[in-house]
Records
---
Amino acid sequence: MTHTTAVVLASRPTGEPIHENFRLEARDLPALEEGQVLLRTIYLSLDPYMRGRMNAGRSYARATELGEVMEGGTVCEVLESASAMFAPGDIVLAHVGWQTHAVQNADLLRAIDPGRAPISTALGILGMPGFAAWVGLTEIGRPQPGETLVVAAATGPVGSMVGQIARLQGARTVGVAGGPDKVAWMRELGFNAALDHRAPTFVEDLGAAVPDGIDIYFENVGGAVWEAVFPHLNDFARVPVCGLVSQYNETRPPAGPDRSHLLMSAINTRRLLVRGFTQRDFGATHYGRFQRDVSTWFAEGRLKYREDVVEGIENAVDAFLGLLEGRNFGKLLVRVSEDPTTGEPSTEA
Amino acid sequence: MTHTTAVVLASRPTGEPIHENFRLEARDLPALEEGQVLLRTIYLSLDPYMRGRMNAGRSYARATELGEVMEGGTVCEVLESASAMFAPGDIVLAHVGWQTHAVQNADLLRAIDPGRAPISTALGILGMPGFAAWVGLTEIGRPQPGETLVVAAATGPVGSMVGQIARLQGARTVGVAGGPDKVAWMRELGFNAALDHRAPTFVEDLGAAVPDGIDIYFENVGGAVWEAVFPHLNDFARVPVCGLVSQYNETRPPAGPDRSHLLMSAINTRRLLVRGFTQRDFGATHYGRFQRDVSTWFAEGRLKYREDVVEGIENAVDAFLGLLEGRNFGKLLVRVSEDPTTGEPSTEA
């Protein structure tokens, strides 16, 4: 019998999650049935949306139950197969969550070609975050040449792709992130302006960086950046709302006054388009176009990315808590076991 | 020399407008130049958007200057013509504002065919309010058969058209207005449910009227109706924001807590589409389709409308102040001079 080591939801957080909301435990795995494969997890993706799954309340996906394995996208290697679709050694995109091994139906898996790009990118620029960036721009933001786009968390996997794709589409791009290292990386990513939201002059810096106003604000953060952006939104600006990570730990609405009327009034008079979305709402047609576009740009060397890799499932909780505070720098991944395509982590480490 | 009697903006209101913000005055009109016509106003349209024009601040159109004639759409008769486009006696759609006469360039006017429909409908179902309803539904709301639509001010010119068009497109429609007479008229208009927002049970009544939630909320009021609607918005609901008449007289944001975060969070998790628009943002192609659709429905007897007609330019201010409080019942018009197609008001009146 095979075992998995899993991180399960031990209790629901009130506000900021703490270690006690999670529990690491060993579990037996069932024997393979026809059509199933046994997987070992190589990379686990950690993403802000997971905070929402920890709540009992209504969201765009069902809540994780207490005692259930934390949800998450993974890159796995097939160890055993009772399916004609995959053979041992195959690398697949799966969604086994925060655990070292899993038994899965083969038809839930997607093959990854290790020759096309590093396999970890299936969780980054070529995966869910990349698709969220692409579809939010393609379907909602629709940058036009010469327009100004602002995105926060701009060194993260979604924000960095938003900036690079919008620039490829002719927009002027302004990235926002925290600290000088991230500002330097935003410049390498090609942002026309790179702002540090921790700078005491951030609000003025943003104003200076958008002399023609803002036509697209790709929202994945909320909070102080949104407050700074809001006055600069031009008539007919588009706001794809992909996430609001700065708000996920809020336990109650902020103190007044109630500015929801001002927001609606601005939507009215400036004819703003504000639309929430998740990449899961868009189907195979969009996904195929995304893969074609982004694979082409990647092969042409026009897309950069950065990963923040944490070793070992036992460090997933720490890494996730840091993600909610913006402590990661690049796409946050847990390397749960050795990547056979790179040999990392080296066994000497 | 011809004169006009005009209502001009005397001062800017703080909050609710008062009589002293307006001034009735006689003005000389210039002599006709080539390409111009002299008009007498028959009907003046009074609409909530005019409140926005009285402010100095940024809105979707420039502010009316102090001393300037209040803006407004009008149906006029051509009295004299120095243009080949129009002859004396022609009825035209113009935008001469709150005044009895005007000299206008003929190329700013649109001919009205008195044989097609009552000429006043060029300011109602066949005019700006009808176009706002049609374009907000066609471009943003997009009702699908079986979906639930809610609209407030549902006996007004926009709301009544929204309900009727959405019903023709197969939606289930819920209208909201104030008082039993308006509820009775909503039933005649064909709303599937007709709710009185003044009823102490309004919040519960709304919940009971939308057992499957709300797919489209056509926003032209804001305030308490929006508060009641918000919890019922389904995933992927659309909110065309046409106006917020209940907020136009607000001088400051309401007391806290600040619910703008909750609004953004709902947009995020429920993937709402909230988009402001004015009918002026849409061009001739849309306008032509609107005229074709609505003229056809009207000719087939499938559209009802109601007008609230006030006699005389000297009563325009009173009527407008009432409009902002919802005291009108149907499309609010000022009959500035006799309608030659009906003879109203009779000279005996």
---
Amino acid sequence: MKTEPRTLAGFMELLPDEQIAFNQIKEKIENTYKKFGFLPLDTPIIELSEVLLAKAGGETEKQIYRFTKGETDLSLRFDLTVPLSKYVAKNYGNLSFPFRRYQIGKVYRGERAQKGRYREFYQCDIDIIGDGELDIINDAELPSVIYNIFKDLGFDNFTICINNRKILNGLFESLGQKENSTEILRIIDKIDKIGKEAVIEELSKLNLQKTNIDKIMEFIEITGTSDEKLEKLENLEINNETYKQGLEELKQVVKNVILFGVPEKNFKVELTIARGLDYYTGTVYETFLNDYREIGSVCSGGRYENLAEYYTDKKLPGVGVSIGLTRLFYQFNELNLVSANKKSISDILIIPMLENLEKPIILASNLRKLGVNTEIFLNDKKLKAKLKYADKLKIPYVIVIGEDEINSNTAKIKNMETGEEIEVELDANSIIKFIKEA
Amino acid sequence: MKTEPRTLAGFMELLPDEQIAFNQIKEKIENTYKKFGFLPLDTPIIELSEVLLAKAGGETEKQIYRFTKGETDLSLRFDLTVPLSKYVAKNYGNLSFPFRRYQIGKVYRGERAQKGRYREFYQCDIDIIGDGELDIINDAELPSVIYNIFKDLGFDNFTICINNRKILNGLFESLGQKENSTEILRIIDKIDKIGKEAVIEELSKLNLQKTNIDKIMEFIEITGTSDEKLEKLENLEINNETYKQGLEELKQVVKNVILFGVPEKNFKVELTIARGLDYYTGTVYETFLNDYREIGSVCSGGRYENLAEYYTDKKLPGVGVSIGLTRLFYQFNELNLVSANKKSISDILIIPMLENLEKPIILASNLRKLGVNTEIFLNDKKLKAKLKYADKLKIPYVIVIGEDEINSNTAKIKNMETGEEIEVELDANSIIKFIKEA
């Protein structure tokens, strides 16, 4: 009796060529994070439930993979933020602040299985954590990281939307609606989906006065360039400290985002984004690929007042963004947007067609020494089967070496994409020269 | 009430500078795997218990992290070989053979916690899987992968020990001890630890005849160079097909390992290594750092007859090796062998000491575009604190930019290791030139 080999629903497992493309995206994200000087972090996937769930509750808690091993109550991490909180609180004395870290790793949520939703998925996070305080200019640096990533992934038409939660909160406070703010945010967050009229209707159900609804609608309908929006926010003349502070912060961020090299066409102030309902306290970000708006935000995050309050008395404000890579890759695939710039691991396949493998093997070693990923086909097959292998693996160059080639010390190198064949000397430098010129 | 932030025993969690060193080793291993044309694979950490444990039993099964979520019986992977088996059986029709894959990922074993033993640890595996058959020359390629990795990690004095299980099995068969072979192997495997006399004594307890014990001792005491050992094995005149086949394979491997560029001083035939007791069926490998023999084998593996017999009728022979990276890193650390060639992520820290950050930020962007990992210190601190930050993060170069520097368009770049300071023009190319020359 054989066991049927199968993979759990909601767990991504790719074929090699898809995995190569996935890894390239992952590497590009990681390289950009490193380019901005973020430090690597790798925390355990399993944590004590008591530690991991110090803050959690509600929906999140239901989705946790939680179990006991021996006597110990364990959980799998469901994001990379809680492990970061734990890590910073635990290692506070050994870290330098601002602590800039990136982490790319798998997290686990037992969501209801459906197409495009994963229970195991990669998150790619960066956060900047301050000790006691963190200058607002840090909030302006993150959009430039996002910008560089999506440019590097080959996109041009995307928008990083920026807002500040204090503006929303201050507005609601000024209307005497502080208690309703969560509910109001939830409603106006849906304006793209349900439209203006439905939003007004839902707001009315909260027993808001008409003047208040008008003010809210006036607010969320502010249009124009980022600068125009900032001016209109000023002109609303809302006399509330939180509002004023949020507006001031947003101005600072907008001004500096440009300094950080993000073109005006790739970011804008978007007053309706709120990013969840209680975690973020200042700047918030969402990023949209404008030609594929339907896939939602591809990179989100924001500023929070206090990273690790469940673990420490130290005040640790921070700002961060996250990319949900597994879902993003799924979406890219659905939209045929995955275009790896290298489709194979090997740059060249050496196909020996002779008994004595000495020369082909030495050639392979020499190519590798010069930085070329080189595979040598070591199994006894017909030439046709060997070429088919190169073709299926999308290896760009193939060189067949038989007795004749050894004797003449030349061989034909074949560009598998164009079919072009060129005779080269049988040494690593000649081959590399040909590959580079092609 | 704060929750104490803590990490489970047996789970490695590193400080940033250690993590940088860890990642460098991981990257070197991965790059070498890619250089030999192995394809990447990433399988889920959670699998159906029925699938993952199709083969397991005994000790392994006790260590599994196994739990239910909803109605589903789940387990965390305890190695990367079983997931590979499942993957190849499941995707057989979509793979090209020989299927060469690498996988670097975390695995889980609930071992008794002790110093240097981890419950979550990285394995770095490569395997070559044949469809029906796999030429013996593949067994000769893997030592060259191992060789390149440990050279790349800065080691010179290491030995890849090679043996073939068929030689041992054939020997025992010829002595009529096939049934005892597992037991005999277990005993002779201990010769390094317990010595010759104790081995003889333990063998006697198995009711072996003196002539048989003599033959076994004659066998395991064969010394000399690899070639001499092969000759002595020949001269033992053991008339057994398995033995002869194993000897023939071992000869092939030894001959070709040299072709693949492994110097004679870095490998040898070692007739007593057996690598576990039933998984491997032919070639077996262990690798020792000769100056640190006490840490045991740092890279092991071998040939197996049939990868996925629990999932499919297809015969899938393979050969592979694995590096237990987490434990290896721990051991390197204990021995002070971790010497990262880059100790920080950032190549340079820009320290602005002025209000208008425009120039410093643009300089940072330009440096990044030219491939330099560049961090800009964005928080309002005293110069001394900013320099201390660079020092703690071991960032090799620092450039301080104040009003004077902006006005003169020059600044001093400081080599933090030597203390050397040089005045450079305030542009990315001048700075890179200085860094490259230093």
